[in-house]
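Input chain follows. Return structure tokens only.
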Amino acid sequence: MLVEFFGLIVLPMIGLQRKFSLLTLLLIFQFGLVAQDIELTNPDLEAVPKMGKTFPTSNLMLGWIDCGVYSFPKESAPDIHPDKYWLNTKQAASGYTYVGMVVRTNETWESICQKMKTPMQAGQCYEFSVQLARSTDYWSGTKSLDGSTSRVEENYVTPAVLRIWGGSLRCGENQLLAESSPVKNNEWQVYNFKFKPKSNYSYIKFEAFYKTPTFDLYNGHILMDDMSTLVAVDCEKKEEPELVEVEPPKAKPIQVNEKEKADAEETLAVVEANPEPVEEYKKPEILLELRNPDKLKKGQVIRLKKLYFLADSSAIPQKSYPVLKELGSFLKFNKDVIIEVGGHTNGIPPHSFCDSLSTVRAKTVADYLVIEGVHPEQIKYKGYGKRLPLASNETMPGRARNQRVEIKILAK
């Protein structure tokens, strides 16, 4: 009876489990997997401290893959720190060791990746953090483009950035998920990222890269440690700033000094009779071609030097303001000059992306000039995409030259 009793109970339960499993599969296919956090393997980057070696002895750490094996097989793998060889004895942010990755003057750079325990899901937002730093000394040998090693070691101390990629294959670069600012801090600092994959990605890749735009390749490095879990978050969630009620200061009784009052009234009368002069025009110090307006020619093209944008964005960082203010001042004092702002990209992305990005960047510059007080009729804008390259897109310096914003003199 006991066996039969359990048989009567268990068999229906098995049937229900099968039905439930089929229903679960149907829901998964119809609505997608339930979002979940993703823990990385060996997020503290623990291993035996050692100098990176070239393939096939370039094995790194548990859970991690050296992507240079595929991209730059003649170059060494990232280094495991701390070790006195690099004159870098900084202690790890978490655990005992951490990773150092470099960018080089021969247009090579280091990166690592791993296959995640569960894939990132398309359309799901994730928050992630990692601790980054830069050492004051990071000596290493260099190789030229032909692979020959330099006899003199160089100090790889120029700040680099961290790029985070999502990929469907090992070391793949299907989507650039996030990019840090140049890592200049010598002490460990937490860098926070939020990204939204466009597809399901099984691999995540961390790459040292040059700060962009750059016209000269350089030797630089970043140090990386203490990676967080990829936390699935609501894409629409917006953090509201905390409101703090500030108690107004208690008013103090005002004691009127008749002499000071008379002096103030006299000063006010002088100011009202002599208003501040209109903005004084200063000759350009960046756009030297604008120093002599009489020599400008219709159709002349001038590149806006020292104008930068955030990667794949029309956002203009503060360090670009001086050249835009200089151009705005020139146009306000030369109201007969009409310009076209032209945006250009490198030749890597597809035409649709290049056309859109170049147009919105050109419009952003035009809008900024109008805000500066330039008459809208003095400005036109146009995005040329990747149709008018100045150099080859096969090299990084060439791509940097092609990605630019220019002005064209339409009338003067």
